[in-house]
Amino acid sequence: MRHELERNLASKIEPRVVADILNAYEGLIQKHRALDAEAALTRAGKFVEHVFRALEFIRTGAAPAEIKSPAATAKLLENDTALPESVRMLIPRIALAMIYDVRSKRGAVHVKEIDPRGIDVDLAAKAASWIIAELIRLYHVDNESAVRQEMTALTRATFPLLESIDGEDFVSKNVPPRVEIQLLLGRKGGEGATRTQLGKMAKCSAPRVTEAIKSLSKERLIHQTEKGIYFLTGTGEADLMKWLADHKGV
């Protein structure tokens, strides 16, 4: 999807800034999936900076090399009434409140304190995905159907433990087969996956994949269409998120 995102965003934003945004975003998502909260939050901060560079390019036609004060830049954007409402208000406020401020104002975590970085990264990943989806909604060259699919893929829950190497998706840690299937289908989002595809992606044996699919289907956590494509249901997504929350250290 990287190519599609670049093509759409570059219709309005300087291509080098687009590349910086997507590199920071991909780094955030990859570190989130690897459960490396500290590294993910570092990339979240970079993502915010590059988003504000992009918004300044939209506002002025020139992208600054760096953003010294995101809050000050947000004020400049808010005062420019010629800009779309999302560029003026929504994107800057979400970038600040849901990513930058949470990352910057936590302070040191004390020894006996519950570490908040896991939930901070979850919030940052969701907010960053929403920001890119909103920019694509505003500035796109693809047809509306393709853009809707891209937006849906971005704004679905961002699951950890998933990686992609050379175009191959896989779960990076040993988890129960049913959880592995849910994670893989969550990764596929609106595309779904066939039984054959799930068998190739899953690291467990074929009989265990079949058993997991039958169990998940019976519980309505996944759904198979008439075309033979499996999808993670809303109930399945909630069930998976609960399992992940209960097994943060997996």
List the helices and strands and how they pair.
Layout: H1 2-9, H2 15-33, H3 37-60, H4 70-79, H5 85-104, H6 117-138, H7 144-155, E1 162-165, E2 168-171, H8 177-188, H9 195-201, H10 206-218, E3 222-224, E4 230-232, H11 234-246
Helix pairs in contact: 1-2, 2-3, 2-6, 3-4, 3-5, 3-6, 4-5, 5-6, 6-7, 8-10, 8-11
Describe the structure.
With 250 residues, this protein is mainly α. It has two domains: 2-155; 162-246, Winged helix-like DNA-binding domain superfamily/Winged helix DNA-binding domain (Arc Repressor Mutant, subunit A, Orthogonal Bundle). The protein is built from eleven helices and four strands. Helix 2 packs antiparallel against helix 6. The longest helix is centred in the first third of the chain and has 24 residues, at 37-60. It starts with a helix and ends with a helix.
Task: Count the domains.
Answer: 2
Major sheet size, sense and barrel closure: 2 strands, antiparallel
Shape: globular
Low-confidence stretches: none
Q: Report the C-alpha radius of gyration, rounded.
A: 19 Å
- Count of DSSP E strands? 4
Looking across the biggest beta sheet, what order are the strands in? 1-2
Gap between N and C termini: 28 Å
Mean pLDDT: 87
Order of helices and strands: HHHHHHHEEHHHEEH
Please count the helical segments: 11
Strand content: 5-15%
Please state the structural category: mainly alpha
Portion in helices? 55-70%
Brief rundown of the structure:
With 250 residues, the chain is mostly helical.
